[in-house]
Amino acid sequence: MLAPLETVVRLARLQERGLSPEVAVEIMKPLEIEAVQITAGENQRTAEQFAGTLFLAIGAIMSVYVITVMNSQFVFQGVLEEKVSRVVEVMAGAVRPWEMMAGKILGLGGLGLTQYVLMIAAWLAGNVLSRRIVEVPTQSVSLRIAALIIVFTLLSYVLNATLMAALGATVSRMEDGQTVIAPVMMLMVVPMFMLTPVMSDPNGTAAVVLSFIPFFTPIIMLLRVIVGDVPAWQVGLSIGLLVVTTALATWMSGRVYRAALLTFGTRPTIKQLWQYLRTG
After folding, report:
1. pTM assigned to the model
2. Which H, E and C letters describe the chain, residue by residue?
3. Tens digit of pLDDT for each residue in 88-140?
4. How deeply is 200 buried, as exposed, middle or buried, from its count of CB atoms within 10 A (0-12, 13-18, 19+)?
5. Which of its termini does the chain have fewer beta carbons within 10 Å around, N or C?
6. Is 37:44 a contact under the CB 8 Å cutoff?
7. Which residues are paired to 44 by β-bridges?
8. Cβ neighbours of residue 206 under 8 Å, at least 6 residues apart?
9. Rg (Cα) of the chain, in Å, rounded?
10. pLDDT in tens, 65-82
């Protein structure tokens, strides 16, 4: 920033060289640089608009992640507690195994829906506060993004909850619980470590491939759609793969759940899980 006296001197020198006062003032204006995010489409975002988009993306991703992780673990704990306490033996005489499994998933899914509504309310309140306090221009949630959030949340929850229910039915001791569900928990956590690379290049090879892996789709594809321009066929294909995987996982988990629910013994092995799947 030039001092007032230095500015006056420079303007006087420019006028001595034959420049009009208006042109001299225009030349002396400070350089203003505006950061713009360049996307594959025609739309471009300023730095402020990108901050709003990032706020939207993080809120959407965390809502899907938290609902999926929390409630699927509730399903596992519920099934395990009923089996360890032998309550399941009494319940098995009144309802079928698949009804017990479906009831557990749907009941805790209803709890998750209540939590989700509260999270969305807090998220919207955060949008308003960020606009008023820190002056971050928040991005409005389009109908397309809202629909994708709902679809990915439901499918992600059902996929992981069915797996957790099946694993819970195979465990006979509380001490073995965390060890058994560790692989599924790792699948849930991995996408959260890929957020930065995906945001840096939403249409890069790594981002595209990861978004087609059903266990990663709800997080990675949702992030790509919010921060970038994703072809409609990629979104449709990722949802299709997720639906097929969820249906297959539900069928397999149902067989394991039915075969393992009334069995007690040591921690299950891969061989035992395969036997449950065949006999279920």
Report:
1. 0.71
2. CCCHHHHHHHHHHHHHCCCCHHHHHHHCCCCCCCCEEECCCCCEEEHHHHHHHHHHHHHHHHHHHHHHHHHHHHHHHHHHHHHHCCHHHHHHCCCCHHHHHHHHHHHHHHHHHHHHHHHHHHHHHHHHHHHHHHCCCCCCCCHHHHHHHHHHHHHHHHHHHHHHHHHHHHCCCHHHHHHHHHHHHHHHHHHHHHHHHHHHCCCCHHHHHHHCCCCCHHHHHHHHHHHCCCCHHHHHHHHHHHHHHHHHHHHHHHHHHHHHCCCCCCCCCHHHHHHHHHHC
3. 666 656 667 667 777 777 777 777 777 767 776 776 676 666 666 655 555 55
4. exposed
5. N
6. yes
7. 38
8. 194, 197, 198
9. 27
10. 888 888 888 888 877 777
Cα–Cα distance measured from residue 48 to residue 37, given in angstroms and rounded to the nearest whole number: 10
